[in-house]
Amino acid sequence: MKRILIAAVAATAMAMFGLPAHAELSNLEIVFVKADANGDLVLSKGEVLMIAIQQFEIADANGDEILEAEEVGELATDPEFSDNDSDKSGSLSIEEMIAEKLADFERIDTDKDGSLTLDELGKAYNVQ
Length: 128
Ligand SMILES: [Ca+2]
Ligand SMILES: [Ca+2]
Ligand SMILES: [Ca+2]
Ligand SMILES: [Ca+2]
Hints:
mainly alpha; binds calcium ion
């Protein structure tokens, strides 16, 4: 069920992403449009997690729901990777990834309305 849902979201995102990249669209805007599955111009927690799980599953080459160092390549040496690896197992479980994404979400959602606007994301990533 979960995989079907993810596939549906991926298809929607791809369809939107299939539009020719607009010259004025920043990388952040592209990511935002991709993640905004229902097109209401804000990202809900569900949409953020959906994209995160999608990316996780793409990276998880052997499908065991754990990102081993060899699956993430040079990312494994990123301080963020060891930060997110809360049990210090040297690999990232899907639970660890979700916990991290939820923490990010709370941090970025500065007005605490439970959704992320492009503006909030822009401020968080220091673009705009
Ligand atoms: Ca949305
Ligand atoms: Ca794996
Ligand atoms: Ca771990
Ligand atoms: Ca918000």
